[in-house]
From TrEMBL:
PANTHER family, alphabetized: SMALL RIBOSOMAL SUBUNIT BIOGENESIS GTPASE RSGA
Name of the protein in its database record: Small ribosomal subunit biogenesis GTPase RsgA
Matches recorded under SUPFAM superfamilies: P-loop containing nucleoside triphosphate hydrolases
Record: residues binding Zn(2+): C276, C281, H283, C289
Species of origin: Streptomyces johnsoniae
Subunit and interaction comment: Monomer. Associates with 30S ribosomal subunit, binds 16S rRNA.
Amino acid sequence: MHSSPSPYGGLSAYGWDDSLELSFAAHRAAGHEPVRVIAVDRGRCDVAAAAGPLRAVTGRGLDPCTGDWAALTPGAEPRLAALLPRRTAIVRASAARDSHGQVLAANVDTVVVAVSLTTALDAGRLERLLALAWESGARPVVALTKADGTEDVSDVLAGAAAAAPGVDVVATSAVSGEGLPELTALLTGTVVLLGPSGAGKSTLGNALLGADRLATGAVRERDDKGRHTTVRRELVPLPGGGVLIDTPGLRGVGLHDAAEGLDQVFPEMERLAADCRFADCAHETEPDCAVLAAVESGELPPRRLASYRKLLRENAWAAARTDARLAAEQADRWKTLKRHQRAMYRFRDRQR
């Protein structure tokens, strides 16, 4: 029995479905066609269309990201006319550390956080990446890579699980194939790989793709860190359905408005804080603090509380900068409006 071809052509392999088609009705009536952004590069982007891949010009005022759905104006020089609303987005603080966030990938369903088993587990960095993933609206999964190069993964597996409550943690090897079936079973829709350089993201991605589609490189023996062999975010269809986005290694991951993500990474904090004497307890030196009591009793590791405090402070700082920027933008709008009003009054007075 043969399955009927998709009415959306090759675009169905990238996730286009009936609900997206329904939301696209006004754009289609205007003569546009749907595309998905594969990669972005200096005012142009590679996109997947129903008839195949295209190179398009980025429309004025648009800031597309890998994974975006967009409306394309076809022609001799295809151009993006609009971006569709993002269902999810992975956003980190910008490299300039200003109040604007940087979107790493859009419309993501599963975030695979890659952690190399050949280096000591950095639980704080893992928690940071998980906060980013949870905040996006996608579901995180932790992939411990390079299991073939490690004799005993049990300690790292336990440490990663402790830093990732409610998240599936899978030890994998792209060389032996260990853990790949279990990891593949957890992946749905659009999958993005996150992690530092040298974590084995691209090698893992090639194993999931079943082909060497993504560039890989060796790591330095002295610190097990790699060069940025992935230089841009790129979206590739997976053989079993769904698509994969590989990302360059993340040296720094600043949080940007990730309060809900932090709640997901540290669920025990809210549970313990409910028993504190003061509703606004900062868990520092307050009397009858249930969080501090949990640390003293050994229920809550001190490292876990220290990491929570650090990320909470960083997120509050980022939120304050965003609020300050929004307030400044509002003030500028008022100033502009007042200038226009004064100019109008002066013109009116001259006409009398």
